[in-house]
Design brief:
By secondary structure, the chain is of the alpha+beta class. It has helices spanning 5-11, 28-35, 111-126, 130-141, 145-169, 175-187, and strands at residues 20-22, 49-54, 59-64, 68-70, 75-77, 81-87, 90-97, 100-107. It has a 5-stranded antiparallel beta sheet with strand order 1-2-3-4-5, with helices on one face. Strands 6-7-8 form a 3-stranded antiparallel beta sheet, covered by helices on one side.
């Protein structure tokens, strides 16, 4: 099963006022009370990200481990999520279950929380699949050493041009200096 730990640690919002928490800043008291309800999550160390919304008489939680998403009604592998749609304070997920798409609704506390959660699920859906990563590795293996060196040089030149552009935006380089340095770097690629 594919792990989404790195993606969640980088992209899951961290906003306690809206109820979004991610590792390592997970609230132990809330997480402890929540784990009692989720029998499939055996340890707080398994939780990568956490959403918590409390109402007067009840609360609503969404837990993310590196491979699954859990709420009060169900849990699903993250790699089976095929679509997401936001409707006011709710998220509607389309999940592949044995070749059929089923729907699952996750209610959230505010429209802004629903928008943030929708972005998280869109990132999960668009994350490159393992077969795509394997294809890139195979394509790179077919290249000769000179081609690989040229690609690495190209990547370095593009990163340097991006840094020069940032310096220009900050006012540390004039437009003329930026253009001259950029042209010099691009000439090295030919």
């Amino acid at each position: 099963m594919r792990s989404y730990r790195v993606l969640l640690l980088r992209k899951f919002p961290e906003n306690p006022t809206l109820g979004f928490y991610r590792h390592p800043k997970l609230p132990s008291s809330l997480l402890g009370r929540t784990l009692v309800r989720f029998l499939h999550v055996t340890s707080p160390a398994d939780v990568v990200a956490f959403y918590y919304h409390e109402k007067i008489l009840h609360s609503y939680e969404v837990l993310f481990t590196d491979t699954h998403v859990y709420d009060k009604k169900a849990y699903y592998p993250l790699e089976d999520i095929r679509g997401v749609q936001r409707k006011d304070k709710r998220i509607l997920l389309e999940i592949n279950q044995l070749g059929r798409l089923i729907s699952h609704t996750i209610p959230l506390g505010t429209p802004l929380a629903a928008e943030l959660m929708e972005r998280v699920f869109e990132l999960i859906i668009r994350a490159p699949k393992e077969d795509a990563i394997e294809k890139v590795i195979q394509m790179r293996a077919a290249l000769n050493a000179a081609s690989i060196q040229w690609l690495e040089l190209r990547d370095e030149v593009m990163r340097t041009i991006d840094l020069l552009h940032e310096k220009y935006q900050e006012g540390k380089l004039s437009l003329l200096e930026y253009e001259m340095l950029r042209e010099d770097l691009l000439r090295r690629l030919t």
